[in-house]
From TrEMBL:
It comes from Vitis vinifera (Grape). The keyword Protein transport does not apply. Keywords: TPR repeat. Pfam families: TPR_8. CDD domains: CTWD_Cns1-like (cd21377). This is Tetratricopeptide repeat protein 4-like. TPR repeats lie at residues 87-120.
Length: 275
């Protein structure tokens, strides 16, 4: 039996685990009864009971989370406990809202818990979790830093701090890539407009793929070019045709047909984007 276990030892059997759970429940029940006995005010007694009932519902699992929320709300509405005590209830309700995926409500509860008791580290932790779930990285970082100021050794907050830093780095990298892509596209459009060129609808993509014109660092355009030979129902594709090049230079290296063919064949040229 768990009653005969040595101090500091761990339960080894299901029976010992059950005994310890029962002892813990008795202690909690006794503590609650003592707290209620010492409380004269009816509203305070009700708030304590609602809070305890909410805690019990949380332990019963997901099916009872809504009941836990209801009990915590009733406890808060009694308005009979001190600010630090009410802060605990708000933080508990924030926890259940997190479990339910009600992240905005969880954040509001955590904020209220912090307002009532600025030293409630659990409230800061839950504010961070809710902020992250809402993709509010700035708020998450602020709550995390404030929480660590109050409890520098809190491992859970340290873990969240690392997560926030990683997500911030990832976001900054993504934003930099997007910014670079937008700038590149603007420069390309400007170069095309300055040359008086018009871009039409892309054609023959089954032959050229999704290749697009590019503007190099020397402000020179490079086009994907498709050569169509109607007489023999064939084609050649030049992936990088520089605007300073001439066709003969490219035709000289195309080896599909004999040289005399290029001197006599009609060649249709498509620049891939309807120039």
């Amino acid at each position: 039996m768990a009653l005969w276990m040595e101090t500091g030892s761990e339960p080894n059997t299901q029976s010992e685990i059950a005994d310890l759970d029962a002892i813990t429940a008795l202690k909690e029940s006794a503590a609650l009864e003592l707290k209620l006995e010492q409380t004269v005010d009816l509203e305070v007694r009700l708030e304590i009971l609602f809070e305890e009932k909410g805690n019990q519902y949380v332990k019963l699992g997901k099916k009872h989370y809504a009941d836990a929320i209801d009990c915590y709300t009733k406890a808060i509405n009694q308005k009979a406990l001190s600010d630090p005590e009410n802060s605990v209830i708000y933080a508990n309700r924030a926890h259940v809202n997190l479990l339910l995926g009600n992240y905005r409500r969880a954040l509001m509860d955590a904020q209220e818990a912090i307002k009532l008791c600025p030293t409630n580290v659990k409230a800061f932790y839950r504010a961070v979790k809710a902020s992250l779930s809402l993709d509010l990285l700035g708020e998450a970082k602020s709550y995390c830093e404030n929480g660590l100021e109050r409890d520098p050794n809190n491992e859970e907050l340290k873990k969240l701090a690392r997560q926030i830093d990683a997500q911030n780095s990832e976001r900054e990298h993504h934003e930099a890539q997007v910014s670079k892509a937008v700038a590149t596209a603007k420069h390309l459009v400007s170069a095309i407009e300055n040359r008086g060129l018009k871009i039409g609808k892309a054609v023959f993509q089954e032959l050229t793929g999704l290749r697009k014109p590019i503007l190099d660092t020397n402000n020179i355009l490079h086009w994907p070019v498709l050569l169509l030979y109607a007489e023999v129902m064939s084609s050649d594709f030049i992936e990088d045709f520089c605007e300073t090049d001439i066709f003969s230079a490219h035709l000289d290296i195309v080896s599909i047909f004999p040289e005399f063919f290029y001197l006599n064949a009609d060649v249709d040229v498509d620049f891939g984007h309807g120039m």
